[in-house]
Amino acid sequence: MKCAQEPKTGGSARASWWNDRSWVWRVATIHASVGVCLVACWLAPADGPPCHGIVPPLLAVTLALVTNRLRLCLAAAVLCGGVLAAVGGAGGAWSTLFEGLWTGGTFFLQTVYNTNSGTCDADHLLILLYVVLIMVMISVMLAGGGLQGVADWLTRFARSARSTRLATVAMGLAIFIDDYANTMIVGSTLRPITDRQRISREKLAFLVDATAAPIAGIALISTWVGYEVTQLADVGADLGIGKGGYAMLVDALGYRFYCLGMIAFVFLNAATGLDFGPMAVAERKAAAGGKPGSPLPAPGDFDTTGNTRSHASVAILPMVALLGVFGGALWIDGGGLDMMGADSLAPLRWSAWAEVLGQANSIRLLAYASAFGLAVALVMAWAMARISAGKMLRAVASGVRISFLPVTVLVLAWSLQGTCDALGTGKFLVALLGDAIPPAVFPALVFCVAGLTAFATGTSWGTMAILIPTALPVAFGLDGAVYGPVTVLSVAAILDGAIFGDHCSPISDTTIMSSAASSCDHLAHVRTQMPYSLVVAAAALGVGYLPAALGAPQWLTLASLAAFMAVLFLALGAVRRRAG
Question: Domain residues of the chain, as ranges?
Answer without folding.
Answer: 22-109, 123-579
